[in-house]
Design brief:
Layout: H1 5-20, H2 40-46, H3 50-128, H4 136-142, H5 146-234, H6 238-270, E1 291-292, H7 303-313, H8 321-335, E2 342-343, H9 371-385, H10 389-398
Helix pairs in contact: 1-5, 2-3, 3-5, 5-6, 6-9, 7-9, 8-10
Region (Disordered): 262-296
Signal peptide: 1-32
Protein name: Transglycosylase SLT domain-containing protein
Length: 404
């Protein structure tokens, strides 16, 4: 979670005041009723007693993880629902285009059939009458000129062949038109079904987004206070504690991922006779051609602003301009610095392409919509996994498909 300078001042002031007086108990909203949050009274009672303070720190850290997990789950559901809604809209658009194309083709086939039928009728009239309104068969029967007879017989034969061909064309066009109309009706039925599904997905996405927004607001409120409590217990600052907790939790994520890789390698060794298994999924992976940009309500897509924030944040890790250049290359390839970049095949999300997406919740409850929170997690991940952006970029370019 990103903390503004003004809020940092307020948090620091709250810590100082909390150390001097016993604050009132914090009122919790109904949504937090199931979580037992430490109170400032608990914190003040623990200060001065090393063992009690350590126990209270553990309690506060557990509360932080609990509130983060709840918001992370709701935000992940919102992200999944937004992606599902976008897929439903894409399916609807494709079905609408198909139905429209089939209707146009059916109408064209109908016109072709009608034109062929008209031409067949005209040819039939020519076969029966010539220009002087005499029946052609009468003229052939009464002619005394052998050459004229042969000419007229040849003309009749040619007209008959043409007429039969036109009739066949009219029949084929009629059957084609009928088939296309049937296909168009089925396509329209499918389009109607998909339209209803798209509306349902859109409504579900709005509901999930609203639920995530409420959870994020609640989590941010409690996270701010819990970090301030940690600062009071450790005689540090809320910002320091937030950065420390982020590093600890990202390291824990990395350790869990390494264990998963080792288990996957052991399983692969036991199945050596089988087909070569795919490599275990990395923590962050290239967006690639499967990247989409779901309409995650509330997200601000501002690549230039995201890069500006990242430039200001890398100094905390001791990185300079050369490392920032590598970071720009890395995340340009991964996500284009778009906060709503989603790899549809893997589920990697955000500017750093976190996999799974909700791992970024340890940096802030608003990871789904806030570029700064995504960047904070991404920098901590790079620091823990590779040591620097250039090392991460070198790894990215050393493997195919690219990932880091």
């Amino acid at each position: 979670m990103r903390t503004s300078p003004s809020r940092r001042v307020l948090v620091a002031a709250a810590v100082v005041v909390g150390a001097l007086v016993a604050p009132a108990l914090t009122a919790l909203p109904a949504s937090a009723a199931t979580t037992q949050y430490p109170t400032w009274q608990d914190v003040q009672q623990a200060k001065g007693n090393e063992q009690a303070a350590a126990a209270e720190v553990t309690k506060v850290q557990a509360a932080l993880q609990s509130v983060q997990a709840d918001a992370a789950a709701k935000s992940q559901r919102a992200l999944d629902a937004a992606a599902a809604a976008d897929r439903a809209e894409a399916d609807l658009a494709a079905a609408t285009q198909t139905a429209s194309t089939l209707r146009t083709q059916a109408d064209d086939a109908e016109r072709t059939a009608a034109q062929a039928q008209d031409r067949a009728g005209q040819l039939a009239a020519i076969l029966y009458r010539d220009g002087s309104q005499n029946a052609m068969t009468t003229r052939i029967a009464t002619t005394h000129d052998p050459d004229q007879l042969l000419y007229q017989l040849g003309a009749v034969d040619q007209l008959s062949s043409t007429w039969e061909g036109v009739l066949e064309d009219a029949s084929v066009a009629g059957r084609t038109a009928e088939s296309l109309h049937d296909q168009a009706e089925r396509a329209e039925s499918e389009r109607s079904t998909l339209a209803a599904a798209a509306e349902d997905r859109s409504a579900s996405a709005r509901t999930a987004s609203d639920a995530a927004a409420r959870a994020v607001a609640d989590t941010q409120q409690h996270s701010d206070e819990l970090y301030a409590q940690l600062a009071a217990l450790k005689d540090t600052t809320a910002t320091t504690e937030q950065q420390y907790e982020l590093g600890v939790q990202v390291a824990a994520q990395q350790a869990a991922q390494q264990r998963a890789r080792e288990r996957a390698a052991a399983a692969a060794a036991q199945q050596a006779a089988a087909a070569t298994p795919s490599s275990p999924a990395p923590a962050a992976t290239s967006g690639g051609s499967g990247t989409s940009y779901p309409s995650t309500g509330g997200v601000t897509v501002d690549p230039a602003g995201a890069q500006a924030y990242a430039r200001s944040a890398i100094g905390a890790y001791g990185w300079g301009g050369d490392q920032f250049s590598c970071l720009v290359s890395l995340w340009t390839q991964e996500s284009g610095w778009r906060a709503n970049a989603l790899n549809a095949s893997s589920g990697a999300y955000g500017i750093p392409q976190s996999l799974p997406a909700n791992k970024m919740a340890v940096a802030g409850a608003d990871w789904r919509t806030n570029a700064a929170t995504q960047i904070n997690w991404g920098l901590a991940y790079i620091h823990d996994a590779y040591g620097s952006p250039c090392a991460a970029w070198n790894h990215e370019m050393s493997v195919n498909p690219h990932w880091y």
